[in-house]
Every structure is written in structure tokens, then in C-alpha cells.
Amino acid sequence: MSGLVVTSASMSLDGFVAYENNDPGALFDWYDAGDVEVPNAGTLPPFHLTRESADYWREWTGSLGCLVVGRLLFDITDGWGGEHPLGVPFVVLTHEPPADWAHAHTGNAHFVTEGIEAAVARAKEIAGDRNVGVAAGTVAGQALAAGLVDEVGVDLVPIVMGSGHRYFEDIEPADVKLGDPTVIIPARSVTHLRYPVVR
Within 13 Å and on the Cβ side, how many CA atoms surround 179? Predict the structure, then answer.
């Protein structure tokens, strides 16, 4: 039995997950809004979350077995040095895998060139019975439009950004059909929400 395919992102009130220059601005302030230390894998320092956010974060991230990300995010982070902060393998959807990536020896990155369906299928193989997370942006939009996403998570941050990269890039609004929220958790600087995808 395989797990769910889920997207999750910190999002502004007007629907953005980063500015045009890929800076998240104040969207990530909730990662340092409390006194509960939550460690990350790799080189990312620990978060300091409120109790409400920490409980939610641990439950959500603890369900993951693999991530699907796009080439832009991979390049911005240099593939997290081969170890994603969530401590799980990741599948990179790309037109062309990097020829000489310094961290390839870690074995945590898997490159797929055949499209979003193949990327999600590979991630499901890796994840087994655990969930697959899909990064926001173009990859999330492609996965949702292809009918591959089971659940949409939003960490709603009470700011207005005005412009930038949207949670779902390059998708027809009619392709987004969500049911009533299954999770609503208010916390300092953020409200955690989850919605099932209606097919």
C-alpha cells in the first residue's frame, strides 16, 4: 500500500510562496516564532517553533518517505548538499541532470527527465508506504493538473507580498478542486491548513 501524494508550502495571504528573486521574505518567520527546538537534517540549523507548529510539523514531516522537487529549487539550494533538511531522499524533475554534481555520492538525489508522472512514480517507489511530498511552484502545479496530488497543505502566513511565485504556477484555476479542510491549526505567525483534493 502506498502513501499519499501531498504538497505543502508557506504561503502569503495573496497566494505567493516566494518573491520573484526566490526570496521567501517573511514567509519563514514562523520557523523561529517559538521555543520548541526542532532539529533538521544536513546543515540547516534547527527551527524554534511554537508548540502548536512543532506538533503539526513533526506529524507532517514524519509521514514523508520521499520528495519531488524541480530543478530550480535544486539549483538554488545546491541540492541541500546531498541531504535534504527533512532527512528523506528526493527526486528532481529536470530536462537534464547535472553532469558533475559534487554531492552525487550521497545517493539521496534521483533525477527524472520523463515528466511529472514519472517523477511521482519514482518517488512512490522510494517512499514505499510513506507519503510523497511535492514542492510548491511549477512542479506542484504540474502534479495537481495531472491528477497526482491527494492533499494540499498550506502554512498560511498573515502577510501580503504583492507579487512573486505562486503556490501553483502555470495551472488552470479549474484544475484546483479542494474539499473542506481536514486540518486547521492556528499558531503564532501561521495557520496550518490541509485540504483533500477532490477528483
Answer: 9
Q: Which domains does the chain have, with CATH numbers?
A: 5-196 (3.40.430.10)
The Cα 90–Cα 47 span in angstroms is 21
193 in the Ramachandran plot: left (φ > 0), alpha (ψ -120 to 50) or beta? beta
Q: What is the three-class DSSP state of 174?
A: helix
C-alpha span between 78 and 70 (Å, rounded): 12
Compute φ and ψ for 161, nearest 5 degrees.
-100, -25
Could you say which DSSP state residue 46 is in? P
Structure confidence by residue, pLDDT tens digits, 10-55: 999 999 999 999 999 999 999 999 999 999 998 899 999 999 999 9
Nearest Cα to 135, choosing from 165, 162, 174, 157?
165
Residue 124 C-alpha cell reads as: 512512490
In terms of residues, how long is the chain? 199
Backbone angles phi, psi at 116, to 5 degrees: -65, -35
Nearest to 67 by CA among 89, 41, 97, 42: 89
pLDDT digits (tens, 9 = 90+) for 17-27: 999 999 999 99
Q: How many helices (H) and strands (E) does the chain have?
A: 4, 12
Alpha helices in the chain (DSSP H): 51-62, 71-77, 116-127, 138-145
Encoded amino acid at 123, one letter: A
- Alpha carbons 106 and 129: distance in angstroms, whole number: 23
